[in-house]
Amino acid sequence: MVKVSVVGAKGRMGSHVVEAVRGASDMQLSLALDAGDDLSAITPGNTDVTVEFTVPSVSLSNVLALVAQGVDVVVGTTGWTDEAFDRVREALAKAPRAGQSVFIAPNFAISAVLADHFARIAAPYFESAEVIELHHPTKVDAPSGTAIHTAHAIGEARRAAGLGEMPDATQTDGGSRGQVIDGVHVHAVRLRGLNAHEEILLGNAGEQLTIRADSFDRISFMPGVLLAVRKVSSGAYPGLTVGLDRFLDL
């Protein structure tokens, strides 16, 4: 049995994680902590993997604390930066237990991970690409971690193919064209009634490919969360791993 603790257990995502862990035949829920609770209660003695689903403003400090306590961590909180990733790597290099691991997922939905993968494959074949992410208005970060990850995947694929900048003759300060990430314009929509959606547009003269992933309910993320817990608990992924695609044999 994998002993799992959840940080952010009363939140929108954390509460689903608690129920998913309770329903998994190979896991047992150890601790369910929320804002104000003492993270030091989580130890290697009572926890194999901690799932952290909180908010961007506290996620990094939570992860660093858990690493220092000798615990492996699966992170679903978004809003991570390259600088934050570097701090996690530094913490893991000093971790008290050999082979400790932290896994961070821009998105746990299998559909979103596959959309990202398909975009990476398609990107070298198209002159233009843009990303639109659409979420509920209570999401605190924009653009989403998923969209940022997708833009980087497209940018990397285009560079590897030797492609230059995309055509764009728009004469603006860039504000209405979305944030430019790795040469890709990314647009964020916040609209009541939405949950989590991403649309990737790729175009050539006379043709367009659209890749779209829709998560209508937060339960769609739970198979990915449980997969990540199982992979991390296996000990086969020491250090920092980013992206559920690393666990899907893509």
From TrEMBL:
Dihydrodipicolinate reductase N-terminal domain segment(s): 2-108
Please name one Pfam family that this protein belongs to.
DapB_N
Residue intervals of the Dihydrodipicolinate reductase C-terminal domain:
114-244
Q: Which GO terms describe its cellular component?
A: cytosol
**Catalytic activity annotation:** (S)-2,3,4,5-tetrahydrodipicolinate + NAD(+) + H2O = (2S,4S)-4-hydroxy-2,3,4,5-tetrahydrodipicolinate + NADH + H(+); (S)-2,3,4,5-tetrahydrodipicolinate + NADP(+) + H2O = (2S,4S)-4-hydroxy-2,3,4,5-tetrahydrodipicolinate + NADPH + H(+)
Q: Which UniProt keywords apply?
A: Amino-acid biosynthesis, Cytoplasm, Diaminopimelate biosynthesis, Lysine biosynthesis, NAD, NADP, Oxidoreductase
Q: What is its main location?
A: cytoplasm
Q: What class of enzyme is it?
A: oxidoreductase
- Catalytic site: 135, 139
Q: Which residues bind NAD(+)?
A: 8-13, 76-78, 105-108
Subcellular localization is given as:
Cytoplasm
Q: Which InterPro entries match?
A: DapB_C, DapB_N, DapB_N_CS, DHDPR_bac, NAD(P)-bd_dom_sf
Protein EC? 1.17.1.8
Superkingdom of source:
Bacteria
Query: GO molecular-function annotation terms?
Result: 4-hydroxy-tetrahydrodipicolinate reductase; NAD binding; NADP binding; oxidoreductase activity, acting on CH or CH2 groups, NAD or NADP as acceptor
Q: What does this protein do?
A: Catalyzes the conversion of 4-hydroxy-tetrahydrodipicolinate (HTPA) to tetrahydrodipicolinate.
Give the family per the record: Belongs to the DapB family.
What the entry lists under PANTHER family is as follows: 4-HYDROXY-TETRAHYDRODIPICOLINATE REDUCTASE 1, CHLOROPLASTIC-RELATED (PTHR20836:SF0), DIHYDRODIPICOLINATE REDUCTASE (PTHR20836)
| UniProt-recorded name of the protein | 4-hydroxy-tetrahydrodipicolinate reductase
Name the gene that codes for it: dapB
